[in-house]
Specification:
alpha/beta, 3-stranded mixed beta sheet, Amidase signature (AS) enzymes, 495 residues, nucleotide-binding, ATP binding, single chain, binds glutamine
Length: 495
């Protein structure tokens, strides 16, 4: 571990630009950190040779006067993004051995800007989960705590982007790509003291992202602070003709939005997020956030999002429905795993492959999804859920007539122990209570490290914004970050 591992993206960018640091040096320090981070199980594949080649060309690019925000910056890639010729399995056994013939647009955008790929990051299988316990490659540990005494359990990093947050919090990547379908960027960021932002649905291309629930899936980033998040988000964003849902909009200079000035801005506090049973320390950090916003000159407005309580059930109908359809393509013929059954023909081969290739949680989602889409139940579940989804979007539209951003806790608890919720899917799903409404509405949201709980684990606050207004989300996140002055770091026990 050298000081180079602790640099922020913006700091490294400035040193690279002045010629005081080379991407080759920075990359070597991070290749070593990836190696040292093995106990975290954040990386499932390291791509150090690719990284070395990219670092050399980044240095040449900088010398030629062609530096962009991410040029020469080593990052990790969630295993959900297709990387040409490199392991891409969404951490599922069913994609066994799959190496795509093409690159996802999000990662291509990074390479076009000169970023450096350190490797592929662990995640919940097909991004289904909130604790990274469903990965075929095993649990990812939260750098913030591991068992200290016999009988005590390790702490989850959150999910599904568990590898992304563990690598960034553990100084084994300067930033990481991630995806958020119902909270998978924001909740793990909150659990690990990192910054995460999910932009508006359509801001980034979904081309080459392994599909979970296509109307919700959105790429985003995990970094160690808001400025780095702005820089990296700008790099991955933009219109892509290969994704019909990507928006034909110019990408703003996100970093320029970090003015530090939120005077007069209206911050909405939704009454419905004061859920019964929310731990006091979550309510306390929320109150602190409100106080910080006031001190920075923002105006606090009480708002109402009346359909909030229907968001979780709606999400857990819509997402599995889309997943059951998307995952139908894994049939043992076109990708990865194939289980052969002697002489029994095609149907048993499908069945055996899918039974062996999908984990328990993914099978559960496929069954729920198939059920809610089936004739006779379609109207009662899926169609009804689509209607409620419209009401939830409308709630946000109406709320944003009264405020510029919304401030809430990111998750109803700090990181929990392995096994605490894995036998109880409902308890696990409840962890997404504050993040799924924004996913259903397609609006941008971030999670900012705000403090520690009584056990020394990070807590995050969520900022939600109007569609296409990532700039205000980032601006407010930045002010919140300065006010919270979160400088804690994990103890580096894994080295
Ligand atoms: N935890 C949620 C789920 O399991 C969200 C996952 C995600 O955003 N990919 O579906």
């Amino acid at each position: 571990m050298t000081d180079l591992n602790k640099l922020k993206i913006a700091e490294a960018r400035d040193l690279l630009g002045k010629g005081e640091l080379s991407s080759v040096e920075l990359t070597e320090a991070h290749i070593s950190a990836v190696e040292a981070s093995k106990p975290l199980n954040a990386y499932i594949e390291s791509t150090s040779e690719i990284a070395r080649t990219q670092a050399k060309s980044a240095d040449a690019q900088i010398k030629a006067g062609n530096q962009k925000g991410m040029t020469g910056i080593p990052v990790g890639i969630k295993d959900l993004f297709a990387t040409k010729g490199v392991h891409t399995q969404a951490c599922s056994k069913i994609l066994d051995g799959f190496k795509p013939e093409y690159e996802s647009t999000v990662t291509q955008n990074l390479w076009d800007d000169g970023a450096v790929m350190l490797g592929k990051l662990n995640m919940d299988e097909f991004a289904m989960g909130s604790s990274n316990e469903t990965s075929f490659y095993g649990n990812v540990l939260n750098p913030w705590r591991l068992k200290t005494a016999a009988g005590e359990k390790d702490t989850v990093p959150g999910g599904s982007s568990g590898g992304s947050v563990s690598a960034v919090a553990g100084f084994a990547a300067m930033g990481a790509t991630a995806s958020d379908t119902g909270g998978s960027i924001r909740q793990p960021a909150a659990f690990t003291g990192t910054f995460g932002i999910k932009p508006t649905y359509g801001r980034c291309s979904r081309f080459g992202m392994v599909a979970f629930a296509s109307s919700l899936d959105q790429a985003g980033v995990i970094t160690r602070d808001v400025r780095d998040g702005a820089i990296m988000l700008e790099s991955i964003s933009g219109f892509d003709p290969k994704d019909s849902t990507s928006a034909k909009l110019d990408v703003p200079n996100f970093e320029a939005a970090l003015t530090g000035d939120i005077k007069g801005l209206k911050v909405g506090i939704p009454a419905e997020y004061r859920l019964e049973g929310t731990p006091q320390e979550i309510l306390d950090i929320w109150d602190k956030g409100i106080q910080w916003m006031k001190e920075a000159g923002a105006e606090i407005v009480e708002i109402s999002l009346p359909h909030t309580k229907y968001a979780l059930p709606t999400y857990y109908i819509v997402a599995p429905a889309e997943a059951s359809s998307n995952l139908a393509r894994y049939d043992g013929v076109r990708y990865g795993l194939r289980e052969t059954v002697d002489g029994d023909g095609l149907i048993p081969m499908y069945e055996e492959t899918r039974a062996a290739g999908f984990g328990e949680e993914v099978q559960r989602r496929i069954m729920i999804g198939t059920y809610v889409l089936s004739a006779g139940y379609y109207d009662a579940y899926y169609l009804k859920a689509q209607r409620v989804r419209q009401l939830i979007s409308r709630d946000f539209k109406e709320a944003f007539e009264k405020c510029d951003v919304i401030l809430t806790p990111t998750a109803p608890s700090a990181a929990f122990e392995f096994g605490a919720k894995s036998d109880d899917p409902l308890a696990m799903y409840l962890n997404d209570v504050f993040t799924v409404p924004a996913s259903l509405a397609g609006i941008p949201g971030s999670s900012v490290p705000a403090g520690l709980d009584k056990d020394g684990l990070p807590l995050g606050l969520q900022i939600l914004g109007k569609a296409w207004d990532e700039e205000t989300v980032l601006k407010v996140s930045h002010v919140l970050e300065m006010a919270a002055a979160f400088t804690h770091q994990p103890s580096e026990w894994w080295r």
